[in-house]
Amino acid sequence: MMIFRSRAPLRLGLAGGGSDVSPFCDQYGGQVLNATINRYAYCTIVPNDEGRIVFRQFGDQIEDEVLEAAPHLETTGRHLLAKASYNRIIADLNKGESLGFELTTWSDAPPGSGLGSSSTVIVAILKAFCEWLKVPMSEYDIAALAFRVERVDLGQHGGHQDQYTAAFGGINFMEFFADDRVLVNPLRVSQWIVREFEMSMLLYYTSISRFSSEIIDEQIKSVEKNDVASIEATKRVKEEALTMKAALLQGRIREIADILDRGWYAKKNMAKSITNSSIDSLLEKAIAAGAYSGKVSGAGGGGFIMLMVDPLERPAVMASLAEQPGQFVDFQFELNGATSWRVSRGSDGSI
């Protein structure tokens, strides 16, 4: 029996986040600089000929869900990402014919972490199905399909960057236009710069989970109401992505820290719920201990904080947050995107 696996990398939003959200990017264009890290979402598909579908999700208390194989599944209850992905695969790539299988997903980051976990899970699921069905799809194709699953089929509000980041991997400067048009520009960053950037950044999980859709809804309403302050703040965030791109390519790490700080200041003016007293307190403690700057990855409100530091000051900054409920997470930048493979399982279950 063949089984099919995939993984897709999670990402850090370095600059420009929020400018990839419609209707802002439709009217003004968006720019984002992001990078994937060696934390992933995974998917395994085990086909069966029993006419049933089993959805399983590791790392939480959600029970397995067993369904009769059908061409279309109702996207209600549990395992919404998997159900919607299956529906799109069947409709677009399998001529409307149902499939029987067990599908298991898990992620190195919890939902609401600010690392694009939900979108990355969808990319991993689609990649595994494409491996099974032997459907060749480019990074753009996978990302666009994942975007349709999450933003259109499920109606979950959010930006455009996460699906493309997971599909492409690496360090990318992305541009967003009207009609969901996206241009991904992979950056050729010298290896010494990548390593120095890693040493100059600390990743701290706040243990605060948040619903990014609520924050994004606030951003959307601000644009729709023509809130000048919010729109101008988003424009500044967008421009910082371009400025940071130049600094990164030239290895100006200290300047990157300053750009991160300016971008965070502007981002806080895009929506009131982007920061809170807990996040502000964590950042103040870290900066008082020697960090150059910091910002929340993703929409804000919680999840992971990126701190820029002099590598020699890492121990002092880490010690400053030792009594807080969160934790530091080791990482390296991942330069590859979503990948899939197949393995043969023997009758005894061994591989």
Detailed description of the structure:
With 351 residues, this protein is α+β, with helices and mostly antiparallel strands. 39% of the residues lie in helices and 23% in strands. The protein has 11 helices and 12 strands. The chain has helices at residues 24-28, 80-93, 117-133, 139-153, 161-168, 191-199, 212-224, 228-249, 253-267, 277-288, 314-320, and strands at 2-15, 30-47, 52-57, 65-68, 101-107, 171-176, 182-186, 201-205, 293-296, 304-308, 327-328, 339-344. Strands 1, 2, 3, 4, 5, 6, 7 and 12 form an 8-stranded mixed β-sheet that branches. It has a 4-stranded antiparallel β-sheet with strand order 9-10-8-11, sandwiched between helices. A hairpin with a 5-residue loop joins strand 6 and strand 7. Helix 3 (117-133) packs across helix 4 (139-153), helix 4 (139-153) packs antiparallel against helix 5 and helix 8 packs antiparallel against helix 9. It starts with a strand and ends in a 7-residue tail after the last strand. The model has no long low-confidence stretch (mean pLDDT 92).
Low-confidence stretches: none
Structural class: alpha+beta
Question: What's the average pLDDT?
Answer: 92
- Share in β-strands: 15-25%
Order of helices and strands: EHEEEHEHHHEEHEHHHHEEHEE
Count of DSSP helices? 11
Largest beta sheet, briefly? Answer: 8 strands, mixed
Helix content: 25-40%
Quantity of strands, as a count: 12
If you compute it from the alpha carbons, what radius of gyration comes out, rounded to the nearest whole angstrom?
A: 20 Å
Distance between the termini: 10 Å
The shape is globular
